From TrEMBL:
Belongs to the ornithine cyclodeaminase/mu-crystallin family. It comes from the Bacteria. Pfam families: OCD_Mu_crystall. InterPro entries: NAD(P)-bd_dom_sf, ODC_Mu_crystall, ODC_N. Keywords: NAD. It comes from Neorhizobium turbinariae. This is Ornithine cyclodeaminase family protein. PANTHER family: KETIMINE REDUCTASE MU-CRYSTALLIN.
C-alpha cells in the first residue's frame, strides 16, 4: 500500500488535472452516502468536528476520508485540518493507498471552486479578491487562475501580519498579491471574490458587489456560520456543490432559507448539473453568481485516485 505524505500528495495533484478529474467524477456513477458529521467537545476551546466521508465507483475504486477539524489548533502552531484518506480497489477491496487528508482536502476544495467558476465567473475575469489567510487561500488563488485570465490578486484578512505572510508565500509561487484593509472597496473591484474563513458573521455585504461578480463561498462549514449577508444572497443567482450538503450544512444558504429571504427554488443548479450541461451557469455579463461549497466525498475520491495514479505511474494511462 502506498503511503503519501503532504508533499507527495501536493505534487500528485496538479490543479489542471485535478479540476478535470473532479468534473469527470461528478459526471460518473459515483455512489456518495451521506457523510457522518460529529461535533466533538474540546474543554476550554471551540468545538471540533470529525468527518467520515465514504464514496465509491462500483467495480473501480472505493474510499473513505477521516478528517478532524480543530479550529483552535492555530494556538499550537498546528493545522486546523488533520486527516487521512484510505483508497481501496472497488473490485477486490484491496487497500491501495493512504493519502494525506489535509492537503487532499485543501486542493480538491479549491479545484471544485475553480470548476464551478468555469461556468459561473465571467470569461474575462482579471481581478480576484481572496478573503481569508488560512491554508486554503493559496490553493484557491492557484486553482481559480487555471480557467480565468487572472492578473491581479487582492488579499484581506483580519490579521494584517498573517495577510502579509500569506502574500509572501504567494510571491514565492509566482503570484503577486496586494494586501488590502478596506474590504468594501476591494469587493467593488473584484471579478471573483473567494471566501475561506471560519466566520460566524457575514463578511461580504450585498451592497458591495458589482454587477457580474462571482462570489465563491468556501468557509462557514456549519449551518450556524456564514460569510455573506442576506442582501448578497438575495441579489445573486445561487449555485451549490450539492443540494443535499448545502441545504443541511451551508449557513450561507440555511440561514436565509430559515428567515424566508430565499426559497429552495432559489438554488439554480448543483455542480453535477453544470458539468452535465443541464444548466448553462452564468446567463449574462451583469449577473451576480454565488457558489456555496460544503464539500463532497466524490471530490475526495477523485483526488485520491489521481494521487494514487500519479504516485504509481498510472497517470494518463
Amino acid at each position: 500500500m502506498l503511503v503519501m505524505d503532504e508533499e507527495q500528495t501536493r505534487a500528485a495533484l496538479p490543479f489542471p488535472e485535478l479540476i478535470d478529474a473532479i468534473a469527470k467524477m461528478f459526471a460518473s456513477e459515483c455512489v456518495m452516502p451521506v457523510r457522518h458529521h460529529h461535533d466533538m467537545e474540546v474543554p476550554g476551546e471551540a468545538h471540533a468536528v470529525m468527518l467520515l466521508m465514504p464514496a465509491w465507483v462500483p467495480g473501480e475504486y472505493a474510499g473513505v476520508k477521516i478528517l478532524n477539524l480543530f479550529p483552535d489548533n492555530h494556538s499550537r502552531s498546528l493545522p486546523s485540518i488533520i486527516g487521512r484518506y484510505l483508497l481501496s480497489s472497488g473490485k477486490t477491496g484491496e487497500m491501495l493507498a493512504m493519502v494525506e487528508g489535509g492537503e487532499l482536502t485543501a486542493r480538491r476544495t479549491a479545484a471544485a471552486s475553480a470548476l464551478a467558476a468555469k461556468y459561473l465567473a465571467r470569461d474575462n475575469a482579471e481581478t480576484m479578491l481572496m478573503v481569508g489567510t488560512g491554508r486554503l487561500s493559496l490553493n484557491l488563488m492557484q486553482a481559480h487562475a487555471v480557467n480565468r485570465p487572472l492578473k491581479r490578486f487582492l488579499l484581506w484578512g483580519r490579521d494584517a501580519a498573517k495577510a502579509q505572510a500569506m502574500a509572501e508565500e504567494a510571491k514565492a509561487l509566482g503570484i503577486t498579491v496586494s494586501v488590502v484593509t478596506d474590504l468594501a472597496a476591494a469587493c467593488a473591484e473584484a471579478d471573483i471574490i473567494s471566501c475561506a474563513t471560519l466566520s460566524s458573521e457575514p463578511l461580504i455585504r450585498g451592497e458591495w458587489l458589482k454587477p457580474g461578480v462571482h462570489l465563491d463561498l468556501v468557509g462557514a462549514y456549519k449551518p450556524t456560520m456564514r460569510e455573506s449577508d442576506d442582501e448578497a444572497v438575495r441579489r445573486a443567482s445561487i449555485f451549490v456543490d450539492t443540494r443535499a450538503g448545502a441545504l443541511k450544512e451551508g449557513g450561507d444558504i440555511v440561514m436565509p432559507l430559515q428567515a424566508g429571504i430565499i426559497s429552495k427554488d432559489a438554488i439554480k443548479a448543483e455542480l453535477a448539473e453544470l458539468v452535465a450541461g443541464s444548466h448553462r451557469g452564468r446567463a449574462s455579463a451583469d449577473e451576480i453568481t454565488l457558489f456555496k461549497s460544503v464539500g463532497a466525498a466524490l471530490e475526495d475520491l477523485a483526488g485520491a485516485i489521481l494521487a494514487y495514479q500519479h504516485a504509481s505511474g498510472q497517470a494518463g494511462a
